[in-house]
Amino acid sequence: MERSLLYHVVMEPTQIHEAAVNGSAHVNGNGWTAPRKVGRPSTVAPYSPRISAWLSDDPRVSGAELLRRVQREGYAGGKSALYELIRRLRIAQNG
Q1: By three-state DSSP, how is residue 28 classified?
Q2: At 40, is the pLDDT very low, low, confident or very high (cuts 50, 70, 90)?
Q3: How far is CA 66 from CA 17, 19, 72, in A?
Q4: Which residue from 27, 26, 86 is spatially nearest to 58, judged by alpha carbons?
Q5: What is the pLDDT of residue 42?
């Protein structure tokens, strides 16, 4: 892979790690750390297996009904995150 002008002009002479330039790593007291995960932990991910099972039982169940079901089981997150998960699960199940 050919090195970019950025590498030759900035990173190589100053010994700056590429992850620092592209923003995928950060510095702590011990030096460079691994790239950090972006965003917050998912509030809807723990419900994925249950939602997947419901979709297997009834592929035509509505997103609003699935929202009601997970809220009864304690889901306190937003509907957009849930609807996105439902969309991905439907695609995965339908191929």
Answers
A1: strand
A2: confident
A3: 46, 41, 10
A4: 86
A5: 87
